[in-house]
Amino acid sequence: MGKIKYLIPFWIAVVVYTLFSIFTGARGVSAYNQLKIERDKQVENMEALQLINKELENTKNALLYDEDALAVYARELGYGSANERFIRIAGLDGTRKQRTEAGQILIASKPNYISDESIKIFSFCLGFGLFICMLVFDRLQHGRHKGPRTQSTKKTRFS
Asked: What is the pLDDT of residues 104-134, one digit of tens each?
């Protein structure tokens, strides 16, 4: 296996980077699910706005084309015809019909994710750390297999 085993940390770093990118990256599963939730909120808000719009459209049509409805709305606002007299009772202003709100602003929040740079740094550090660990482990194993070094006491002469 020799030197090929030193490629294992590289491939582990690639796998870790890939998995983190798929699940927690900017375009990963987690960010996608968060965006789906925000989209569902926007769809619900749009449906509520359409209902409000329909109600306001009906009110507008009633005011434009129905004189009786116009008279009722005018009375609610405190107006009357020329031959009517009003008695106003103090403290009963809250009895007027409440109008429909125009809707609410719904601002989508940005999804939370781990940046690509952070994933790259983490993957590189993990792969480099594994590479160093393997290198140190191999050096320690290499030292154990050779045994203690002994020097020969015999001297030889070369002539």
From this structure: 888 888 899 999 999 999 999 999 999 999 9
Let me know if residue 149 belongs to a domain: no
> Are 94 and 73 contained in the same domain?
yes
Given CA atoms 129, 130, 131, 132 in this order, what sign does their dihedral have?
positive
**Is 89 found in the same domain as 55?**
yes
Q: Tokens 């609410």: give the residue.
A: 104
Please tell me whether residues 90 and 49 are part of one structural domain: yes
Q: Tokens in use for 101?
A: 């709100």
Is the separation of the CB atoms in 25 and 31 below 8 Å?
A: yes
Whole-angstrom CA distances from 66 to 56, 70, 74, 80, 97 are 15, 6, 12, 16, 18
The one-letter code for the residue type at 155 is: K
pLDDT in tens, 63-120: 899 888 888 888 877 787 778 777 767 766 555 566 667 778 888 888 999 999 999 9
Contact 112, 37 (CB under 8 A): no
Identify the domain containing residue 86 by its residue range: 29-111
